[in-house]
UniProtKB/TrEMBL annotation, chain B:
<keyword id="KW-0732">Signal</keyword>
<protein>
    <submittedName>
        <fullName>ABC transporter substrate-binding protein</fullName>
    </submittedName>
</protein>
<dbReference type="InterPro" id="IPR006059">
    <property type="entry name" value="SBP"/>
</dbReference>
<dbReference type="Pfam" id="PF01547">
    <property type="entry name" value="SBP_bac_1"/>
</dbReference>
<feature type="signal peptide">
    <location>
        <begin position="1"/>
        <end position="23"/>
    </location>
</feature>
<dbReference type="InterPro" id="IPR050490">
    <property type="entry name" value="Bact_solute-bd_prot1"/>
</dbReference>
Amino acid sequence: MTATVSAAPPAGAAAPRARPRPPRRGTLRTWVARGGLTKIAFALPLVFVFGYFAWWPIIDGVAMSMQRTNLVDPPEFVGWSNFSYVLSDPLLPKAIGNTLLFAVLALLIGFPAPLLLATFMAELRGTRRLYSVLAYLPVIIPPVVAVLLWKFFYSPEPTGLFNTVLGWFGAGPFGWLNSAGTVLPAIVVEATWAYFGSTTIIYLAALTAVRRELYEAAEIDGAGILRRTWHVTLPQIRGVVLVMALLQIINTMQVFTEPFVFTGGGPNNASTTILLMIYDYAFIEGDYGAATALSVLLALFLGVVSAVYFAATRRLS
Amino acid sequence: MRTATKRSSALAVLLALTLGVAACGDDGQDDPTRPAADEEVDLDADVTITVGDLPPAAEPEEREFFEGQVEAFMAANPNITVEATEELWDPQTFQAKIAAGDLPDVLAVPFTEAGSLAERGQIAELSQAMDLAGLTADLDPDLVGLVSSEDGGVYAIPTAAQALGLIYNRDLFVQAGLDPDDPPRTWDDVRAAARQITEATGATGFATMTTEGQGGWMLAAGIYSFGGTVENEDGTEATFADEPAAQYLDLLRAMRWEDQTMGSNFLYNAAGLVEDFSAGRVGMFVGFSGLYRPAVIRNEMPAENFGMGPMPVGGDADPTALTGGVIQVVNPDATPEERVAAVKWIDFFYLGQFTDEAVAVAAAQAGAAAGQAVTVPERPAVSQEAYDQYFEWIEPHLNVPVANFETYIQAFGEQTLQPEPAVKAQEVYSELDVVVQQVLTEEGADVDAVLDEAATAVDRLLGR
């Protein structure tokens, strides 16, 4: 390497720091003169939009979890009774179990798929763009339409798409959505198909940031594609992988559209998730107190999960 | 991305809720459903009401008829201005609309919701408005009783009623060697016919709805047909965990697992079931006569294949059919004057056809021109005489093969017409979905245990 190159500061390194100015007592006039009002003017619309549409509803939602309301009369404060009502719901353990099972299945089936696909696609040269488009196609189908499409695939009749194909090999017909044992895996497969495209694109973008020299060095050392992936690719994108894993856990714990449109939570509550319970409280029973109480509990739980996850993976990332 | 959509939808719900609280906080009164007793009502004051259920632009003839009726109503009541909107009943948006104060003053709602909406104080009490408006229609007092409270409050005006019955595919009946003019009258007959249909045609002999509360609705109908009940009279306890429900579920179990005549789809809502029925894949199911419309108009089932008979009778029970229908409810925020105007509109538009030949004929003509079903026989919301008279007026415009409903209509006189559970009907139905699903998807399901479990869940709901 030449002296010129080695003298250049590496990308991202801090520029030489200017000598700190002596602290000056801030007066209103100097604050205004430095553009303080402009800053406020820029920030205000944003603060207002976030405050009104995001933060205030959250605070109000928490308040509603301790109220009983018909949305017409003034709400009545009921303390913790909404929480005790939802926590004593005999369906809650089943919904929690289903939600966790969904999250685990999604992690097993849905998490490695886009990672493998992105790694494979990154190896391609000329056709990567084509494969990116193909992988992303399911994402542009509206979720409800995708579910209705897959409902046909999962038809329990021997003439259903999957049952027909399996029938060629002498298997089935299976009930798919009509059986308590297969309904959740069936929904996870659809959800994976529907969402893996966007995750794949994110991984692909992360992979382009991996420096080619590392691969070249590994290749010179005699590493094959598997060892290159294991020792170069994964360590280089582990930050992205860990964040994606956390996002996926948070998403799958809030799964709603698929079980709602596929089965409505059936058969026999085998696909009832926590969000479906919240929906039922709110829109079937008109019990907004119970619905927000369960929502608050879910939000707290996810907050704790996220904190624990970050603490546990801090070293890795 | 998933995160974004999930979060934003959760936020949207939260937002709807919170805006609701804000709205309540601003306009809350002590009891918004009832006007103060001593309040003076000025019947000549200028009022404006919004009314829902305006047909969409995709149905131009019906929309034109509706708008014409609005003009005619305003001409007859110069102090009332009517603004029509396309708002429809939708349980998912109703709460948000009520919270935001966006509910039309008049909206059509299923009978099933009446009890819960009244109990929550989300619809207006109408007895004073009905007295002042002077209803011209001769309403069936039994139906009015179903939307009334113990202290005489009336919370809705029933404008269409229905009794559940056995809907069957006449073509499949013929193929199976059954008489399409003599549908099964008992559940034993239904079981035998289902076997015959499946053997002869390969189609599902008998199917039932199982999701979205409709499974519970049909289970309730089955329980009543075996002489059982769903709730006690006060609506404080579940009463279905007993013999009649067990008998009905045992019948379903036998048809599903022994006879194999119930097909392979056990996650049907009404729309899905009607779709398969219209395509000739299902022989029989329990439903209401209005399902003729989605079957024949939307799914293009040949009208002559649609047949309907009375609700089957179980065991030694008396013939009993579960009834329901459509009620018109009024916004709880409406002023006394607006309530009177709303009742006048309901009387004019929904019930006028039962008192005025010109209105009946015009409505029938508009419906026929729009390709709608004119008209599906149902249990009358008005007196039998008024209903018969109405049918006579519109006879030249009928496009529904009314003869295919003959046994269903004849049975009205012989059946006990069973109202829906008085308290939280929709919520109870939702709990009962699971019972039907379990019996149809788990071969060894213990019917008594399943019923006990559901009864515990319903007790909890009713005790809330």
